[in-house]
Amino acid sequence: MTDLTTNTTAKAAEGEARFGDYVQLLKPRVMSLVVFTALVGLLVAPVPVDPMIGFTAILFIALGAGASGALNMWYDADIDRVMRRTARRPVPAGRVEAGEALSLGLWLSAISVAMLGLATNWMAAGLLAFTIFFYAVVYTMWLKRATPQNIVIGGAAGAFPPMVGWVAATGSVSLEALLMFGLIFMWTPPHFWALALFMKSDYHEARVPMLTVTHGRAETRRQILIYTVLLVPVALGLGFTSVAGPVYLAAALVLNAVFLKGAWDIWRRDEAAAEADGYATEKRVFRFSLYYLFLHFGALLVDAGLRSWGIA
């Protein structure tokens, strides 16, 4: 076999879709957060859920999240191709055809909604269907390319999972479910805008109207502080509902103090200082924001466990 043949074969192999590429289409890192928050919503609900039904519910909520990811990658292939952090995704890299991503997303959407309805109740299934629609159509196809408020309004898509889990268990929506929704909804803008501060060039080149592109970094810093201030009472308010306890309240007090201090530090920074240290503060706050949400929902889970053991 000649060197030319070997190189051609190697290149062809590199372009072929593998199982991991289809997994990547489902955005597994985003799915992990969806699964965790939905699981917490289901487990802290005041209605006991059969373990098999609970497992089935979370499985199909996860598939619904994966469906949203596949539809997002199908439609956003042109943007992903331009941005450095997304250029190697399966569709823009050419390993998966756009039509395959669309087909996978549609099939998983139908299966996840139908099976969640059969396993739990149709209100939960309807809420899951709306979540997929909101992320794939309202956010991906409209808001993301149309307005700097894309993250603010579009954040609702990521905020629905704990509510879906709650409704799967109870068949209804309550204040607790709304506050869990609100926690994620209000967390989303400062989380993504902190990222956008040190990834502005990507969004600019892709012509995505992120706030950093349309209004500049100074205004983005101000908005991060505003939304973090608005987030604090939502997070603390959840601590005074039936699903929370001393662990959550203590965690929320510490986490929100740290997050608020981070937002304040970002607001006080000027671009010269940020560029000088490679946006160290912004990157630190962004990393902390990842733990922020996980630890809030983890604390809810701990309190639920303590209640079940009669400790709290």
UniProtKB/TrEMBL annotation:
Note: Carbon 2 of the heme B porphyrin ring is defined according to the Fischer nomenclature.
Pathway(s) this gene product operates in, as recorded in its UniProt entry: Porphyrin-containing compound metabolism; heme O biosynthesis; heme O from protoheme: step 1/1
GO biological process, one term: heme O biosynthetic process
Protein's membrane topology: Multi-pass membrane protein
Subunit structure: Interacts with CtaA.
GO MF term set: protoheme IX farnesyltransferase activity
Record key words, sorted: Cell membrane, Heme biosynthesis, Membrane, Transferase, Transmembrane, Transmembrane helix
Chief location of this protein within or outside the cell: membrane
Catalytic activity: heme b + (2E,6E)-farnesyl diphosphate + H2O = Fe(II)-heme o + diphosphate
Assigned GO CC terms: plasma membrane
Top-level class of the enzyme under EC nomenclature: transferase
Family per similarity comment: Belongs to the UbiA prenyltransferase family. Protoheme IX farnesyltransferase subfamily.
Membrane-crossing residue ranges in chain numbering: 30-47, 53-75, 96-116, 122-143, 150-171, 177-198, 224-241, 247-267, 288-306
Localisation per UniProt entry: Cell membrane
Purpose: Converts heme B (protoheme IX) to heme O by substitution of the vinyl group on carbon 2 of heme B porphyrin ring with a hydroxyethyl farnesyl side group.
HAMAP family assigned to the protein according to its UniProt record, in alphabetical order: CyoE_CtaB (MF_00154)
EC number: 2.5.1.141
Protein name: Protoheme IX farnesyltransferase
